[in-house]
Design goal:
The chain is built from 10 helices and 7 strands. By secondary structure, the chain is of the alpha+beta class. The protein has 2 domains: 212 residues, Beta-Lactamase (2-Layer Sandwich); 65 residues, Arc Repressor Mutant, subunit A (Orthogonal Bundle). The radius of gyration is 24 Å and the shape is elongated.
Length: 286
Amino acid sequence: MRKCVRLAAWGISAWSGASGTVEPTAENTYHPRAGRPGLAVDPGSVGLVMESEGRMTEEVINALQQLADVIQNQNSLGAALAGIAEAATTSVPGCDAASIALSIEGRPITAAISARIALELDLTQYDLHDGPCLTSFRSMSTLRIDVAEAGDEFPHFARAAELRGVRGVLSVPALWGDDIVGTLNLYSRSVPFDETAEVIAEVLATQVALAVSRSPEFVAARDVVEHAQRNLDDIAQIQVATGLLMVNEACTIDQAEGLLRSAAAHDEQTILEIARRIIAQQQHSR
């Protein structure tokens, strides 16, 4: 059965799992605010105000400029993401449904949707371990496809999309530095997305990254992960140094660990500092 994973610390609900279905309800879904949210954006950052021929209109930019105020006033990350998803359906040409998937332990999990069809197609990709949105997530690059022409690249997903009347898919990564925090996934039942849609979607994806990065829960989680990674790196270096001592001194692991402790006490340094010295000496002796 598919699970609705409650991420209480994030203030969001997220869907993942194997086969089955989940019916989004008021209990497990963050619904967008009423009205037409937009997004604060410097027009210069996305080019000049553009006309209808594949260009952004002033109406779109004005709509986008309102979303930052909406996001700033949200009390949870989930509500902010829901606002961005809804903004995509009103500001991206041809967008009928949107979802936002966040990177949780290195894999995408849907955290906000504007319509059920977006959730269904996200889940289809999770089940298949393949699809345009997963490809965008893994490659950290924008992917825009015409479903009618995607049968060779994504045969199973293309069939699922066609059954739901979807003609275009646009997935844009939300990046924070060199890390991906999620993807903005857009679905169109009218026409395949064009370059104008891609430009606006990239602006919205930037807001996803900002909303996540400004979340206290995200900052705390990132600090925990970085601290854990440092601890793993430190342990790995101590283990390497222990192994070098066992080889060079022809001793057991207990004896090697004892040598590290003795050296640390004698030199008034930490075991990690001694381990680093041993590794450095080994590298210089080669």
